[in-house]
Design a protein that fits this description.
The complex is a heterodimer of chains A (118) and B (191). Chain A has one domain. Chain A contains 5 helices and 3 strands, in the order αβαβααβα. In chain A, strands 2-1-3 form a 3-stranded antiparallel beta sheet. With 191 residues, chain B is an alpha/beta fold. In chain B, a hairpin with a 2-residue loop joins strand 3 and strand 4. The radius of gyration of chain B is 17 Å and the shape is globular. The N terminus of chain B is likely disordered. The chains are: A mainly alpha (118), B alpha/beta (191). Chains A and B meet through strand 1, helix 3 and helix 5 of A and strand 1, strand 2, strand 3, strand 4 and helix 5 of B.
């Protein structure tokens, strides 16, 4: 249902990244949360329209995968644009909770209790 | 909206669980039945590395250049959000699974009793990587012709992997499968 991008979008996805297909940083995952910095730094330059759209959607914290779905852009494209916004000081990011071989019992219990309330 | 904390609101912690299994086994249905939002979809363009390595039989022509990823969200609290990702079911999209599995709490492998073999590969994937999982036997039309133990034997599952009969269309049923996974994770963490 999320198709129809060729009809609706004016710019091909990787044109938004200047043809780049790889991000400059590797720490964005699907569930990394990004939040717009408000107010923007005084030295900030005016963002491009697609960057502006991203910033509007992350006025509140939002996961990378959600941004991609809402803006109907591939995650790979969103991540490259987020790298630019991060370098420009326009967003902050929060990595997901690390999941290691020694799972955090409190975290698991919290998720379990939350599911129990559904 | 006028709260003074709007600006300083901290981003929540995020965790994820994968919903895996063969093509058409009900993964997106399960994601949708427990998610607080309608399942979202992202589409990734495929690079040549991902194309042509596997069986292309039965793949719809229009899907040949992108792989879709469906996911949902459950807010556990102000400071914790759980994401559910349906893994791409078709064999040729398996290269995406490693990325998806990284950092996941665990997985639910859905099995269609009419074609259990379509979920063998998913079970194998998680076993090989030591990623904890439970098996949800999705009864189409709510029917369960086989008891869980028979399915466990048929799938050659180890003792610690739970097998649950479920109906992916039902919120309560899908929730119970997720709770079973968490109970399994908690039991493993305590021991």
């Amino acid at each position: 249902m999320a198709g129809g991008d060729t009809a609706g979008r004016l710019v091909r996805p990787f044109a938004l990244t200047g043809g780049r297909t790889r991000p400059s940083r590797a720490d964005f995952t699907l569930i990394t949360t990004v939040t717009a910095v408000d107010p923007p730094p005084t030295w900030a330059t005016r963002p491009q329209p697609e960057q502006q759209r991203i910033l509007r959607h992350c006025a509140r914290p939002i996961a990378v995968a959600e941004l991609a779905a809402l803006l109907d852009l591939p995650v790979s494209v969103i991540v490259i644009m987020l790298c630019d916004l991060l370098e420009a000081g326009r967003i902050t990011l929060r990595p997901p909770r690390p999941v290691s071989q020694n799972p955090d019992l409190d975290l698991l219990q919290k998720v379990r209790d939350g599911l129990g309330r559904l | 909206m006028a709260d003074s904390d709007t600006v300083t609101r901290a981003a929540p912690d995020t965790v994820k669980i994968l919903i895996a299994g063969g093509f058409g086994v009900g993964k997106t249905t399960m994601v949708g039945s427990v998610s607080e939002i309608a399942p979202l979809r992202t589409e990734e363009p495929l690079t040549e590395a991902g194309l042509g390595v596997d069986d292309l039989e039965g793949i719809e022509e229009k899907k040949a250049t992108t792989v879709a990823l469906d996911f949902g969200r459950i807010t556990i609290g102000d400071d914790l959000v759980l994401y559910l990702f349906g893994t791409p079911g078709q064999q040729r999209f398996w290269f995406m699974w490693n990325d998806l599995a990284l950092g996941a709490l665990g997985a639910v492998v859905l099995v269609d009793v009419r074609r259990p073999e379509s979920s063998f590969a998913a079970i194998d994937f998680f076993e090989r990587r030591g990623i904890p999982f439970v098996v949800g036997v999705n009864g189409f039309y709510g029917e369960h012709p086989y008891p869980p133990e028979e399915i466990r034997d048929a799938l050659a599952l180890p003792e610690h992997v739970q097998v649950l009969l479920c109906d992916a269309r039902e919120r309560g049923s899908s929730r119970d499968v997720l709770i079973a996974l968490l109970d399994q994770l908690i039991a493993a963490a305590v021991n």
